[in-house]
Amino acid sequence: MLVDFTVENYRSIKEPVTLSAVAQKQSDRQTSQSSKRKRVKSDHEITPGYHVEGWDIELLPVLAIFGANASGKSNVIQALDYLLLMMSKGIQEAVTFQKLFKSAKLDPFRLDMISAQKPTKFELRTLFNNNIYTYSLVINENNIISESLDYALNTTKRTRRLFHRQWDEINKNFIWKTGEHFAGYHNQLQDNIRENELFFSILVKLKVDVIESIVRWLKIRWIGINWENPKYDNITLIKSLQGTENSISNEIIEEVLTILQKFDTGLSRIDMVKKYDDPNDYNIFAVHNTDDGGSVAWLFDEESLGTQRLFNLAFRIVVVRKTGGLIIFDELGTNIHPNILKRIIKIFQNPKTNPRSAQLILTSHDNTLPRNNLLRRDQIWFTQKRSDQSTELYPLTDFHVRNDLAIDKAYLDGHFGAVPFLPSEEEMILQGDEQCQES
């Protein structure tokens, strides 16, 4: 599971920003008497978080980032997505995937000359088997400056080095330090690793017991944070599952259809019909029931954009619930009704519907999501621009708000920042008059 993520000098992010899934202590979020009278749930009642044995912390299943356009909220999750992609696939493949998925490149903050010459820094903390792993990477123009992996047992809390390498510019090689708990044949590969290769991405292809859990988490992760993903388009997903003899695959497609039916899409089933000119390919039809007890079908890609995106999203939800993975989504509310989006969040918030502790990180402009009883105060994050146009990331808990506050209204009123600075109506009218006169 994700514990927290820190990035520095990435696109609009200049200073280090940290997105944390660590819940606030329950003692710090008492429910007031007025809140009880209004039937407002406490943060712990909204979702208890996942208790981590030995660390006295809870990890949150959902994190939501809000902010004005161009404030950098997408860059925060793009940075996380890019790091996970490099760790699991390697730098060169990450560049290929970046083009395929239309995601951001590995660029530094370019609005001042000093930052433009500095490297990008990542730090990722994850938790598996109650042990916390810390992976750090400093990279400049796809060349590694430093890379390290440490872990700490929940029993001792002592940080143990697995490996660390630092580029020596004078001798043009890496200086390696390997911990006693990382012995094995994999260390023989160190001398052959190029400047633009991650050691971790090589370890992913091997069997190294001490990092097996984090490697498995990376391998099952759903790559990409946007809807437009040619590798995982709906037609490809359906063809990979429907009509197969694999019982798990059939179970997935049935669960996806159940979710779609509960979301009131009107979809009763999905049929696949072999093409006459190519018996190895299929036409995929969406089937709807009619009032007279019959049914009508049309090509699945003729369904509304909302239904198509819901299928894609439902598929991801089903898979991640079975694997306990992580989904990162940019602009999750696009083409989805707010009530459906709330239901999706509740699926992740409830331990009964999310038994494997899957996590969802999203950005959104839907101001109804911060309303009471859906998200805890420590699950709500904001981005805004600093005076130098760099991105600032901060949680709602920085403001110590009551849990019965109308957060959505306060957010739109600008009490937490993270909203666009717009000209007044009078200024807009005057500007419009000037344009008319010029024309």
How far the N terminus sits from the C terminus, by CA atoms, comes to 58 Å
Q: Count the DSSP helices.
A: 13
Task: Order the strands across the largest sheet as they lie in space.
Answer: 2-1-6-7-8-9-10
What structural class should be given to the helix and strand makeup? alpha+beta
Looking at how many chains there are and whether they match, the oligomeric state comes to single chain
Radius of gyration: 24 Å
CATH architectural designation of the largest domain: 3-Layer(aba) Sandwich
Reading the helices and strands in chain order gives EEHHEEEHHHEEEEEHHHHEEEHEHEEEHH
Q: What fold name stands as the CATH topology of the largest domain? A: Rossmann fold
Mean pLDDT: 85
Unreliable sequence segments:
243-247
Which CATH C-level class of the largest domain is it? Alpha Beta
**Helix proportion:** 25-40%
- Largest sheet, strands/sense/barrel: 7 strands, antiparallel
Describe the structure.
The protein has 439 residues and is an alpha+beta fold. The protein contains 13 helices and 17 strands. The strands form 4 sheets. A 7-stranded antiparallel beta sheet has the order 2-1-6-7-8-9-10, covered by helices on one side. Strands 14-15-5-16-17 form a 5-stranded mixed beta sheet, sandwiched between helices. The chain has a 3-stranded antiparallel beta sheet with strand order 11-12-13, covered by helices on one side. It is globular, with a radius of gyration of 24 Å. Helix 3 (73-89) crosses helix 4 (91-101). It is 30% helix and 24% strand.
Which secondary structure elements does this structure contain, and how are they paired or packed?
Elements: E1 2-8, E2 17-20, H1 33-37, H2 43-46, E3 50-52, E4 57-59, E5 62-67, H3 73-89, H4 91-101, H5 113-117, E6 120-128, E7 131-140, E8 143-152, E9 159-168, E10 173-178, H6 199-203, H7 212-219, H8 234-241, H9 247-262, E11 269-274, E12 282-289, E13 295-299, H10 305-323, E14 326-329, H11 338-349, E15 359-363, E16 380-385, E17 391-395, H12 407-412, H13 425-438
Parallel strand pairs: 5-15, 5-16, 14-15
Antiparallel strand pairs: 1-2, 1-6, 3-4, 6-7, 7-8, 8-9, 9-10, 11-12, 12-13, 16-17
Helix pairs in contact: 3-4, 9-10
